[in-house]
Amino acid sequence: MALVSMDLRRRHNATVLASATEGDLLEFPREFFSHWAVYIGGGQVVHLTGENDGISDGLGNPGTCFSVSGSNMDKAMVQIDNFWDVVKTSKVNKNNEKDARHRPFTRREIVKRALSKVGKVGYNAIWSNCEHFASWCRNGVKMSEQVEDAVSKAGIVGFLGIGAAILIGIAVSKSGRRNQTQ
Question: Is 35 an annotated catalytic residue?
Fold first, then answer.
């Protein structure tokens, strides 16, 4: 059963690769996040990757989220890799959805922008991750929808928590005043 699933995933990935054109963004869903790359043709991608970004294990490293000047950021770089070395066990998707909000550069310019950053760059899951890099290459805007979604969800939870704390505080305050008047 697992072999069938892996074979189907490999065929899916081969189909996506065959349909990809230079400048397309490729999204590689991992366990806790998606990895992003720019397709440059010839079965090659350019992506921001590094020792501590979790790509090798697919899990992500929470420590990189909060390292503002630590070594975690210093170990990532933009590099060119073979599509199959990056896809690993993921089911890749071509994802140019940001084009609806941000006009893409020409395919040639996207590839040129990606290649211009090959070398040491730095990594931070919140401010400078692989999705930020890929969207900058294609659309000229550093954005990460997965970070925006996480921050939005955290904000809602935080707002609800603050609201609950206020209500509890009011209830305790009223209860305390009632006890004082008795």
Answer: yes
